[in-house]
Amino acid sequence: MAFWACAQLIPGHERMALHCLERVAGFEIYAPRIRAPRTARCQDPRPLFPGYAFVLIVLQWHAIKRTPGVVRLVADGGVPARVPNAVIAELRARERNGLVQLPEPRRFRTGDRVRVTHGPLLGLEGLVAGIRASERIEVLLGLLGRARAVLPIADVEPV
User: Fold this and answer.
1) Which of 1, 24, 145, 152 could disulfide-link to 20, CB 3.0 to 4.6 Å?
2) Does residue 105 form part of some domain?
3) Count of CB atoms situated within 10 Å of the CB of 48
4) Taking 60 as the threshold, does the pLDDT of residue 13 lie above it?
5) Structural domain harbouring 67
6) Residue 45 in contact with residue 36, Cβ under 8 Å?
7) 102-114 residue pLDDT tens
8) Which of the two residues, 41 and 1, has the higher pLDDT score?
9) DSSP 154
10) Average of per-residue pLDDT across 79-86
């Protein structure tokens, strides 16, 4: 029965590895790409998982290890780790014009009510005091007379 596996590719040789896996060795491959962020110098699409590609294994998988540009197959107990078909289907369902569309990051504004979802301040609520660089948020907590905390944006949710 066919299954998807994940191959680790040699950095800087990804194109060659993908070509060899598909054209030379005859494997179906899936290397999802995303649009580079607006802040990046180069706006070309880039890999969603740099240095990795999914490979559909139908009959045999040993040839993958000998394919130029491939470091190894991600393994589980000496055999290729299976990537659930649902994962591949979900990624493909998010594609638009050949690029995976990632969900928009949460946007907060000053004054929004938030709750801490991770870390030692778990469960506390407060108000957004500001957004900082590198995905961090400053929150005024109703703790000890409005204490300020700077947290990763991923650690808070809107109330």
Assistant:
1) 24
2) no
3) 15
4) yes
5) 3-100
6) yes
7) 776 667 888 899 9
8) 1
9) G
10) 94
Residues 84 and 29 in one domain: yes
DSSP string of 71-116, one letter each residue: EEE-EETTEEPPBPHHHHHHHHHTEETTEE-PPPPP---TT-EEEE
Nearest to 80 by CA among 96, 64, 98: 64
Mean pLDDT across the stretch 85-91?
95
125 and 73: one domain?
no
pLDDT one-digit tens code per residue, 33-67: 988 665 556 667 889 999 999 999 998 888 898 89
CATH number for the domain harbouring residue 16: 3.30.70.940
Residue that is written with structure tokens 């369902």 in the block: 93
Residues 94 and 39 reside in one and the same domain: yes
Q: Which residue has the tokens 């890999």?
A: 47
Q: Are residues 17 and 94 in the same domain?
A: yes
8 A C-beta contact, residue 151 and residue 136: yes
> Residue 48: helix, strand or coil by DSSP?
coil
Whether 107 is covered by a domain: the verdict is no
Asked which of 10-14, 105-109, 125-129 is least confident by mean pLDDT, the reply is 105-109
Distances (CA, A) of 5 to 20, 69, 73, 76: 16, 16, 7, 11
